[in-house]
């Protein structure tokens, strides 16, 4: 427990000293301000009398349900936050392992009777806590803004932060693996964003396989789809969870457990490999 608390303190101090913490929450605050100023709703007796999005009027049809329209907005923003929050988390935490392996820092930690695996895992947990603070700051602030403007409370929007943190935890696990192997913050960031985008592209693996003439390439694409994190499926899961099938105009998605299970397996594998490599690494 002392190692975990020490790493949490070290991560927060380092983030503050390097201006990472200030930049992290500054960008989030800017987004919250833009959201608050972009959405103008005129609610009369629980009915939406008028709405403006980024200064443009949103035309309502008589059959449109106010709560359904609100769920559509919340679902869309939750999906965007899954991408935005994950991106910020990667930038803010990708340096944790390369920084840990610096000559003076690693010597200080290894001079204590602490398991290398627990040292790495406590660093991982500290990074997740830093990312979670920002994710729930974003979601919580927007949730409060929506409540203040509409008087409607949708707990699912707030709870979507748990699904977003699952995606963040997966990306951070991969960043830790790359960080242990390369000791480079830049490579960790590039590789993590690369696999995030690759996961988005592989969502269309069926179409890609059909367009490929070589069977071995089609088999490789199919295998990569099942191995690599299902980033698009997880983003759609956030949207589906918030909308609960009640938002008009939204494609109805079912919360399929398969993307979560395969992505969790990928994250666990990354952490196991990172721990194994860190355990055997010479400093």
Helix-strand category: mainly alpha
Number of helices: 12
Taking pLDDT < 50 over at least 5 consecutive residues as the criterion, the unreliable ranges are: none
The span between the termini is 24 Å
Q: Helicity level, as a percent range?
A: over 70%
In total, the number of domains comes to: 1
SSE order: HHEEEHHHHHHHHHH
> What do the pLDDT scores average to?
82
Radius of gyration over alpha carbons? 21 Å
Side by side, the strands of the main sheet go 1-2-3
Biggest sheet layout? 3 strands, antiparallel
Total number of strands: 3
Shape: globular
Binned strand content: 5-15%
Q: Explain this structure to me?
A:
The protein has 283 residues and is mainly alpha-helical. It has one domain (2-280). The protein has twelve helices and three strands, in the order ααβββαααααααααα. It has helices at residues 2-17, 20-38, 66-93, 96-100, 103-110, 116-150, 155-182, 185-201, 205-211, 215-227, 231-243, 257-280, and strands at residues 39-44, 47-53, 56-57. A three-stranded antiparallel beta sheet has the order 1-2-3. α1 (2-17) crosses α6 (116-150), α6 runs antiparallel to α12 and α7 (155-182) runs parallel beside α12 (257-280). It starts with a helix and ends with a helix. The mean pLDDT is 82.
